[in-house]
Design goal:
By secondary structure, the protein is α+β, with helices and mostly antiparallel strands. The protein folds into 2 domains: about 30 residues, no CATH class; about 60 residues, Alpha-Beta Plaits, CATH 3.30.70.20. The protein contains 3 helices and 2 strands. Strands 1-2 form a two-stranded antiparallel sheet. The structure holds iron/sulfur cluster (2 copies). The site of one iron/sulfur cluster (SF4) has 13 residues, from loops. One iron/sulfur cluster binds next to α3.
C-alpha cells in the first residue's frame, strides 16, 4: 500500500488513486494540499481580530500561521479544509465562513 502511495502525484489519474482516497503512512501531510477539497472557506476579518490566539490551537490542520511576536496571520488555504472550528472558537466574530 505504501508503495502505491509513493506513485501518486499531481498528474495521477483517478484509476491510480488509493481506494477511497486513503492516505497511507504518517508524517506526509505536507504532500497533500487538503485545502483542495474544501467547500467552505474561513475569512479572517482582521479589523475585528484582537489577536487573542484562541483560534490557532483549535485548527486540526495547523492552517492558521503564527508569525514572530505571536500574532496570527491570514489562513493557509493550501491546508485549510473549511471545517469552521476556528470560527466557532473566535469570541470576537473575527472569522466568517463563506
Ligand atoms: S476552517 Fe478548520 S481547517 Fe480551516 S483554518 Fe479553520 S479550523 Fe483550520
Ligand atoms: S480567535 Fe478571533 S480574535 Fe482571537 S486571534 Fe483568532 S481570529 Fe483573532
Amino acid at each position: 500500500m505504501a508503495e502505491k502511495k509513493c506513485k501518486i502525484n499531481a498528474n495521477s489519474t483517478w484509476q491510480e488513486m488509493t481506494p477511497g482516497g486513503t492516505i497511507y503512512d504518517a508524517a506526509n501531510s505536507l504532500e497533500f494540499t487538503t485545502g483542495d477539497w474544501r467547500s467552505r472557506k474561513p475569512i479572517w476579518l482582521q479589523e475585528k481580530c484582537k489577536q487573542c490566539g484562541l483560534c490557532v490551537p483549535t485548527c486540526p490542520d495547523s492552517a492558521i500561521p503564527v508569525i514572530e511576536g505571536g500574532n496570527r496571520t491570514d489562513f493557509n488555504y493550501d491546508y485549510c479544509k473549511g471545517c469552521g472550528v476556528c470560527a466557532k472558537a473566535c469570541p470576537f466574530n473575527a472569522i466568517s465562513m463563506e
